[in-house]
Amino acid sequence: MDSRSQVTNQTLDTLAAGRTASVAGIAPSAGPLAHRLIELGFDEGALVEVIHQAPLGDPIAVRVDGSVVALRRALAHHILLADAA
C-alpha cells in the first residue's frame, strides 16, 4: 500500500455517498467471495467512490476503475478502506 495512504477501520459499506477512498484489502471473512471482489476491481490500491444508495440503503452503487458496480452492503462490509492520498 502507498505510504501516503492512512489505514482506517472503515469498510466500504460505511463510506458516505460522494466520498472517495482507496481499497486497503479484502477482509478474511469474505472467504471465497474475496476472489470475485478482486475480479470486479476491488484490489489493493484501487480508488472507490460510492455514487448512489438505493432508497432503503441496499444495494449501493460504487465506481471502481471506471466501472460502476452494485453491491449489497453485506458484501461491501468485507472491503477494507484506506484514506485516499
TrEMBL record:
GO terms assigned for molecular function: transition metal ion binding
Any Pfam family hit: FeoA
Superkingdom classification of source: Bacteria
Keyword terms: Iron
InterPro entries linked: Fe-transptr_FeoA-like, FeoA, FeoA_core_dom, Transcriptional_repressor_C
Domain Ferrous iron transporter FeoA-like as annotated: residue spans: 10-83
Name of the molecule in the record: Ferrous iron transport protein A
Source species of the chain: Sandaracinobacter neustonicus
